[in-house]
Structures are given as structure tokens and as C-alpha cells.
Amino acid sequence: MNPEHSPPADPKGGSLPASLPAQAPLLVFTTLPDTASAEQLAQHLVEQRLAACVSMQAPCHSIYRWQGALEQGSEVPLIIKTTHARYPALEAAILARHPYELPELIAVPIVAGLPSYLEWLSANISSCESGA
Description:
Blueprint (H helix, E strand, L loop, with lengths): L24 E8 L2 H13 L5 E4 L3 E7 L2 E15 L3 H11 L8 E4 L5 H12 L6
């Protein structure tokens, strides 16, 4: 969403089901207005071990309704791989650095995947928690 058209972010943050195990893998989706801001956010999330990997997608054209009017704009989607335990810190980092006042921020559990990849994902998130 265009930052000029965005209301203030929800100060309470998001919520995830408490039933998910701490190391449950998640895909988190967000969009940014341009490649530079998307790359900066992706780099920060991986450097801080809030995400094991961030896949920056090709720019897309978003169409949405805002304040009763149809809006359009170019955005760069990010697909972020993290864990349930790291989601609160990831959400806070995105909200602190995202140029939109109300960024798209959607997390979905990964219910299946290549076991060795999911182990790698967890190891690259949890190593920050063990001091590595």
C-alpha cells in the first residue's frame, strides 16, 4: 500500500496460534515499494538471523481499494522464511524499517517440506538464540 494512504500500524502487533511449536517453520509475506528498500530489509532480516532466507520477487502490480477508491502501484514482494519463535522479533523489525505505515505482513505455517531444508531453516534461525 502506498505510504501516503496508509493508516498507523497496529501497535499490538500480530498474533500466531499458541499451538504452534517454537521451531515451527513459517512463510511470511510482505511487499515494499521498490527494489532498494526490499533489498535493505531482506539483508537486515538475514543478518540479524530473524530469517534464514528472504526471496525477493520480481516487481508486481498491486491493485487494491483504499478509502473507497481503487488504487494501483508497483511493489516488490518478499517471501521470508522464519520460525514461530522468531516471528515477534521479525514483525517488530519489519514494522520499524518498513516505509509503509501499514505494511502487508502475513505469516502462514509451513505444513510440509524437504526435511533437510526445514532443518537448515531452523538451524539458521536458532543459532542466534544459542549465541552463534
